[in-house]
Amino acid sequence: YANGTAAAAAVELASPTAARQPFVIGVSGGTASGKTTVCDMIIQQLHDHRVVLVNQDSFYRGLTAEESARAQDYNFDHPDAFDTEQLLECMGQLKRAQPVNVPIYDFKKHRRCSESFRKVNASDVIILEGILVFHDQRVRNLMDMKIFVDTDADIRLARRIRRDTVERGRDISSVLDQYGRFVKPAFDDFVLPSKKYADVIIPRGGDNHVAVDLIVEHIRTKLGQHDLCKIYPNVHVVQSTFQV
Ligand code: CTP
Question: Which domain holds residue 66?
Answer without folding.
Answer: 8-241
